[in-house]
């Protein structure tokens, strides 16, 4: 079969789960001879992998498609493909409104992109029911820096949160087997990955749909045998959080002392109307247990303000909860009224101005908490994964400590000392800011012992939208 050698530009919007889908498309197309370019003006094929979780994400996706469509007029582009959640949700309408787009692929069709582009007469829309999940044999090209990668352990979600459209876009939960996930993790480690970021729509529900019903802690016990330094847990839904999982987090050094667990609210009334399945007492008890059993744990969570029916009393409960719990990381989302969700039909909508005010208030509380927590680190020594020169200035290096996930958290700026990207060094913190730290290198490994890994591609450009899952 004659291979194509077309140039490809990939734009990814949305969450890290979407990024993994893009990486599968990159791997699939690279196998067919496509070459990745960094400028859309140079690409013969442009792929936009979209997000449709909430209003602003949908708008960003539409704007990006229209922006890329301009390259069909001014650039080398002959084929424009739109994939992901926006296609899944609005494929029919989009195909009528956007004649400049050649193909729309749904959330389960991304692995078919190579066949679609190779065929002379391909359908314009390929939007099957969401039921696909890739495995360790599926081609995939890591688009992150060589020392870090996302590892998707399951796809889809069996929860029915009233504000969330994801189960309709991504389908029910489909977990990968432990052996399959470990195989992919080992391959990533062989490529030089030091940090595995586990992602799923619902990480803690991992395995309940598989024969034998393995649990997340069973998976982690096998993953810690892989030659990586940090394994980070994202999107850990709090409904089921067994003691065995907490025990693995507490006792396995490779499991980063970091947990991304979306809680969404602190008012029992709101938690009930969100259909979260647990009340505020359960959440408080779980947080207490986690912090007691896993000392030094960095907690990331997300909250939603402005759900229909949220009163000032409910909001005061939320603010008090944030002040009391003092989360190390907190994202706050403004409620977005999404057709097709249960919350769309709820009465007592909150005015947008009120939603924005509440968002500002919680963010201001959290900013103070962040600053106070960072100030306590001044003078301390911490281990940092060096990422390379700072984008702001070549005179600074930038990295992350164990409590900072890629793309969504703060960073550590290094203004004294040398280190390679992908190297773990000991930093003494000299300054603290609202979200970032500044420090100097006090210890680093012997550069002669460094393993060199060859990479023939620079990472693909990706825009991120952190989902309030």
Write the layout of secondary structure elements.
Layout: E1 7-12, H1 16-31, E2 35-36, E3 45-50, H2 55-69, H3 71-74, E4 79-84, H4 85-97, E5 103-105, H5 113-118, E6 125-126, E7 148-152, E8 154-155, H6 166-170, E9 174-175, H7 178-190, E10 195-199, H8 216-223, E11 230-233, H9 243-251, E12 255-260, H10 268-273, H11 280-293, E13 298-305, H12 312-325, E14 329-334, H13 352-375, E15 381-389, E16 397-401, E17 412-416, E18 424-432, E19 437-443
Parallel strand pairs: 1-2, 1-3, 3-4, 4-5, 5-6, 7-10, 10-11, 11-12, 12-13, 13-14, 17-19
Antiparallel strand pairs: 8-9, 15-16, 15-18, 16-17, 18-19
Helix pairs in contact: 7-8, 8-9, 12-13
Domain Radical SAM core: 143-372
Protein name: Ribosomal protein uS12 methylthiotransferase RimO
Main location: cytoplasm
Structure description:
By secondary structure, the protein is α/β, with parallel strands linked by helices. 31% of the residues lie in helices and 21% in strands. The strands form 4 sheets. It has a 6-stranded parallel beta sheet, sandwiched between helices. The chain has a 6-stranded parallel beta sheet with strand order 7-10-11-12-13-14. It has a 5-stranded mixed beta barrel with strand order 15-16-17-19-18. Strand 18 and strand 19 form a beta hairpin. It is globular.
> Residue-averaged pLDDT, rounded?
91
- What is the molecular shape? globular
Low-confidence spans: 454-469
Major beta sheet, specifics?
Answer: 6 strands, parallel
- Give the spatial strand order of the biggest sheet: 2-1-3-4-5-6
Number of helices: 13
Estimated helix fraction: 25-40%
Quote the distance from N terminus to C terminus.
Answer: 43 Å
Oligomer: single chain
Q: What is the radius of gyration?
A: 22 Å
User: Which structural category do the helix and sheet elements fall into?
Assistant: alpha/beta
Secondary structure: number of strands: 19
Strand proportion, as a percent range, falls in 15-25%
